[in-house]
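Lay summary. Proteins are chains of building blocks that fold into shapes, and those shapes determine what they do. In this project we predict the shape from the chain. Here is one chain we studied, written as its sequence of building blocks.
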Amino acid sequence: MKIKLIFILIIFGCSKTEPAQKFKISTENTIDVSANILDFETDQIISMPYITVLDQYLLITDLMATSEKGIHIYNKNSLQFITSTVELGEGPGEIMRIGEVALTSKNNEFWMPDLAKLQAFKFDLDSILLDSSYKPTVSIPIPNDFFLVGYSVVSDSIALGSGVEVLSPSTFRVSLVKWNLITGEAEKFGYEHPSLANQSTNAFFNYSN
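And here is the predicted shape, written in a compact code that computers can read:
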């Protein structure tokens, strides 16, 4: 009976002809931006770019970086190359497996997770611009129970983002996570439907200050 009812409604809806409506498109407010488009030419080889705007700078993270450094910094207006940072390696202040840039409420710093060392490193932008060999000296461990894959530092002590929770060797779930940078504790935040408990899920997070 339910299938027949749906079938009748579909036939009835299809048989009804609506008059065509005409819309007049105004070009008075059209802005031509073709003259403002710049060709982005760079000598740096970037395999998988992740773009972040920080103050007057454009940070392009190469998530599959194979060169000596993983982030290339450009002037966001002229696209002129300035310097590169985040040295790749196993030594102190070096990143073994690069992740996504984590912005803060300040315009002169960012965090970079090392997905191999399970450490998050704090980078000072002014120091990077003054010293091409700069390496961060501040780092904190990334929680194991909620492996953060994308986050923003919203205060001196709290970061919010998306965290991966492993359910089995082949399944996982992504939840919104609040990370205390001082204690190292991570916990879920926001609403999640009870029926989704222990099921594979996904979650996305973005932050604008």
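What the prediction tells us: Residues 1-15 have pLDDT under 50 and may be disordered.
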